[in-house]
Amino acid sequence: MTQQKGAPLVEMKDISISFGGIKAVDKVSIDLYPGEVVGLLGHNGAGKSTLIKCLSGAYGMDSGEIFINGEKAEIRNPRDARSYNIETIYQTLALADNLDAASNLFLGRELVSRAGFVDDARMEAETRKIMARLNPNFRKFNAPVSSLSGGQRQSVAIARAVYFNAKILIMDEPTAALGPQETQMVAELIQELKSQGLGIFLIEHDIHAVMNLCDRASVMKNGELVGTVNVNEVTDEDILGMIILGKKPAGKA
Predict the structure, then answer these.
(1) Do 197 and 155 share a domain, yes or no?
(2) Is 73 in the same domain as 12?
(3) How many CB atoms lie within 10 A of CB 223?
């Protein structure tokens, strides 16, 4: 379990956002510490993705405040979020299938030589360096990412975020549609990121994934926060009760 000392990496305080008069998120507060994974759970429409899109800059919140490293942050768009070292890895991964790992890693941020040409050799060398740290078994550096397995594609997306200095990572169901081996690979990647001090928000439907990967779990229902619990102090049934009934387990108030 993470030692929660000092200022949180992220504090979202009293966040509210409405669409067409319907409150999608209603006064929700959550936080995240360095080297910690916090799972966000809830039925479709519970508000978890909407809440986290306020942090990623995809949505503007109606009210509330976001603090990064104890200082108030102004996040109006994804570029603002990146300036606070927040990176998002969506379920679709947003990779260019026809390009190799290095071209994807530097997509839109290509390294160029002094003569002004794209420096493929340097980009591949940098990609090999970051992959050695994240996924030492990665070998297919020159293959288009369309030929990679789900877990390998996930490592390319994570490598891109980490290379560009992410400190706060938002991951949207990173193990969805992956087999057991691939899921294990992503779990190892997450452990590696934790050991490097990153904080990770994990949007998940799968309670087992949350129990295996997360330090804490925050459950939302109907736009409100049911509560946040330490994963090692609750059971799968406790979390399921929070999702379905909207109640914290007894003794966890």
Answers:
(1) no
(2) yes
(3) 22
CB 8, CB 35: distance < 8 Å: no
CA distance 161 to 58: 17
Given pLDDT bands bounded at 50, 70 and 90, which one contains residue 251? low
Q: What does the pLDDT average to over 102-119?
A: 91
Tell me the per-residue pLDDT of 32-45, one tens digit each, with 9 for 90 and over. Answer: 999 999 999 999 88
Instruction: Identify the pLDDT of residue 77.
Output: 92
**Under 8 Å CB-to-CB from 22, ≥6 apart: which residues?**
none
In 3D space, the residue among 187, 216, 217, 225 whose CA is nearest the CA of residue 64 turns out to be: 225
| 176 lies in the same domain as 71 | yes
The per-residue DSSP string of the chain comes to: -----SS-SEEEEEEEEEETTEEEEEEEEEEE-TT-EEEEE-STTSSHHHHHHHHHTSS--SEEEEEETTEEE---SHHHHHHTTEEEE-TTTT--TTS-HHHHHTTTS--B-TTSSB-HHHHHHHHHHHHHHH-TT---TTS-GGGS-HHHHHHHHHHHHHHTT-SEEEEESTTTT--HHHHHHHHHHHHHHHHTT-EEEEE-S-HHHHHHH-SEEEEEETTEEEEEEEGGGS-HHHHHHHHHH--PPTT--
The string of pLDDT tens digits covering residues 58-74 is 999 999 999 999 999 99
| Cα gap 199→6, rounded to integer Å | 14
Task: Note down the domain range covering 8.
Answer: 1-85+167-253
> pLDDT per residue over 174-215, tens digit each?
888 778 888 888 888 899 899 889 999 999 988 988 999 999
- Residue 188 token pair: 């190892």
